[in-house]
Amino acid sequence: MRGSACMCMYLYFLLIRIAALFGHKKARLLVRGQEETLKNLTAKRSNSDSGLSATAVYQRSGLIWIHAASVGEFEQARPLIERLRREKPQHKIVVTFFSPSGYEMRKHYAQADGVYYLPFATRTNARRFLDALQPTMAIFVKYEFWPAYLHELKRRNIPTYSISAIFRPGQLFFRPWGKWYLDTLRCFTHIYVQDQASLQLLRESGISRSSIAGDTRFDRMAEVTAHPKQIPVVEQFVGGSKQVIVAGSTWPQDEALLARFIDNSLAIKLILVPHEIDEKHLHTIFELFEGRMVRYTRANDVNIRHARVLVVDTMGLLSSIYPYGQVAYIGGGFGVGIHNTIEAAAYGMPVVFGPNYQHFREAKGLIAAGAAESVKNYDELQNALLRALDNHAETGARAARYVQSELGATDKIYREIFQNK
């Protein structure tokens, strides 16, 4: 069965390579970036101390490898990385990404000694990567379970951890035909999960080296909200309005509903932050909001004055934009699943999102706390947004309390892994 899984993995990588050959931008970035990783790391190792054992390297630097799939998972790792940098500066830290979007956004991250793509998870690549990097510890974030890497780390007796992990009964690990994949989890020295349901699934499957720590994203968002950035363009757009909705990480279905809402709600302003900002997607947005919008990168004193919609056509600003609104709409819920709700909730904002949120513990927690609503159609969206605007202070306070109640995951993980090392 494990051989079949390897074949599936090789087929997946082959399809990505084919897509890259035919000009798919993200596939091309991924293939090129992964090839560069092995080339660069191998060159660095050959020019330094490749003859030293992992133990000797640990005594000198203690290189910790942290892997995140993309930006969201990186934000979960970030509070742990930055605490390590403050309290144990003798350690080297290397971060890897699978996603091109994650790598491109964080490739210059100053708190890491190196940022790379993770090479395709074949046995050969795993050996080459670990030979070149020589980590003394590895940390994988949330959903990242690459068998080739995990088995090779275990073979080398390198302590390996999973943080902010979350599990569901339908995952392959817990299917009758997925026992081979369950063995992958036994490669971890310890798995830190977000909730009791995840812990119970692991324990029932014989994975005893596990415990509840919570979700480190809450700690990260608490740090972000403590030092909000000022964005003059957004400040100018909002003016003195107290009826501002911030729509974060939106997709076309979200945008169509929001355009209809703005047509019917003349006193309300909207800050729209799309998930994708390629020109094709932006053109569709501009057509939806024609005559009512201004583009962030082209805003000036004249055109911003009469606009009711600000379309943010640049990356990296969303978490700093939320404090300028009273209510947050989170995109993705009419597609495969909603995006980050914690960012907005941490600022004390009521949250509204589409119907596909069941796989997101924090979304269910916000609903249970009376701080969020899920909507299935336009009428529900309109009513939920208007309700949230009318009661934003009370509902937002519930959101902030929920976030506060979830803090502490980073401290628990840090104490257990690093306190006495």
Would you give an account of this structure?
- This protein has helices at residues 2-21, 25-46, 54-60, 71-87, 100-106, 123-133, 147-155, 179-185, 196-204, 216-226, 232-238, 252-263, 279-288, 318-321, 342-346, 361-368, 378-390, 392-405, 409-418; strands at 64-68, 93-97, 114-117, 137-141, 160-165, 190-193, 210-212, 244-250, 269-274, 293-295, 309-311, 327-330, 351-353, 372-374.
- It is an alpha/beta fold and 421 residues long.
- The strands form 2 sheets. The protein has a 7-stranded parallel beta sheet, sandwiched between helices. Strands 10-11-9-8-12-13-14 form a 7-stranded parallel beta sheet, with helices on both faces.
- The protein is globular.
- The model is unreliable at 1-5 and 49-60 (pLDDT under 50).
Set out the fold topology:
Elements: H1 2-21, H2 25-46, H3 54-60, E1 64-68, H4 71-87, E2 93-97, H5 100-106, E3 114-117, H6 123-133, E4 137-141, H7 147-155, E5 160-165, H8 179-185, E6 190-193, H9 196-204, E7 210-212, H10 216-226, H11 232-238, E8 244-250, H12 252-263, E9 269-274, H13 279-288, E10 293-295, E11 309-311, H14 318-321, E12 327-330, H15 342-346, E13 351-353, H16 361-368, E14 372-374, H17 378-390, H18 392-405, H19 409-418
Parallel strand pairs: 1-2, 1-4, 2-3, 4-5, 5-6, 6-7, 8-9, 8-12, 9-11, 10-11, 12-13, 13-14
Helix pairs in contact: 1-2, 2-6, 4-10, 4-19, 6-7, 12-13
Tally of DSSP helical segments: 19
Percent in helix: 40-55%
Described by strand count, sense and barrel closure, the largest sheet is: 7 strands, parallel
Q: Kindly estimate the percentage of residues that lie in beta strands according to DSSP.
A: 5-15%
Rg, nearest Å = 23 Å
Overall residue-averaged pLDDT value: 89
Structural class: alpha/beta
Number of strands: 14
Strand arrangement in the largest pleated sheet? 3-2-1-4-5-6-7
Shape: globular
End-to-end distance: 39 Å
Task: Give start-end ranges of low-pLDDT stretches.
Answer: 1-5, 49-60
